[in-house]
Each structure stands twice: as structure tokens, then as C-alpha cells.
User: What shape does this take?
Amino acid sequence: MEAYNICQSCGMPINDPSLHGTETEGGWSCQYCHYCYQNGQFTQPTMTLEEMQYNVRCRMEDKHLPETLINTAVENLHCLNRWLQRPVHGFLQHPPRINPSYGLTI
Ligand SMILES: [Zn+2]
Assistant: This one.
């Protein structure tokens, strides 16, 4: 199983293995960051897409990123696996290799 290079919940770049979330089985999540996902579950399981869009916008505004970049990131959130409700099974036994061809570029 390859690792996504952006979190499939919040869209944050996962450019370091330590940023990957963790599974109950003890592996690394192949698709979520550790802010969104720990021990096999979402840290905020009831969060809606709208709330996530708001969170991402605030986080990016805090970093003073360009408005166009923020809009693109927020508009693309619904394409991520969490919000598509696309089931993805499997986890990583080893620290993930980052595959740059996966995921959206923001
Ligand atoms: Zn995340």
C-alpha cells in the first residue's frame, strides 16, 4: 500500500513519516495525518466537511498564505477520501514512503 502525500481528511502535506496518523494495529495510516487520525480513529469523528473547510481556511490564514491558494485548498477538500466516504482498507507496517504522484497538490 502506497502512502498519500497529503492528508485525506484535512489536505495537509504529509511530507514527513512522523506526520502520519496511527492505526489500532500499530501501523501508520496510509492516508491521514496525526492531527486528524490516531489509534485507528478520527480525532474529531463528528466533524463535517464545512467545519473542516473553516478550520483549513483559518489555519492557512494564520500562516499568511495567498488567498488563491487558500481558496483552492478549501475547494478541493471534498475530493479527499474522508469526505468522499470512500473506504480505504489497509495500513502501513513501516514508515511510509512518500509517493509524489498521489494526492492533490496544494
Ligand atoms: Zn489531516
The first strand starts at residue 20 and ends at 22. Residues 7, 9-10, 12, 32-33, 35-36 surround zinc ion (CB under 6 Å). The CA atoms of residues 48 and 76 lie 15 Å apart. Strands lie at 20-22, 28-33, 37-38, 41-42.
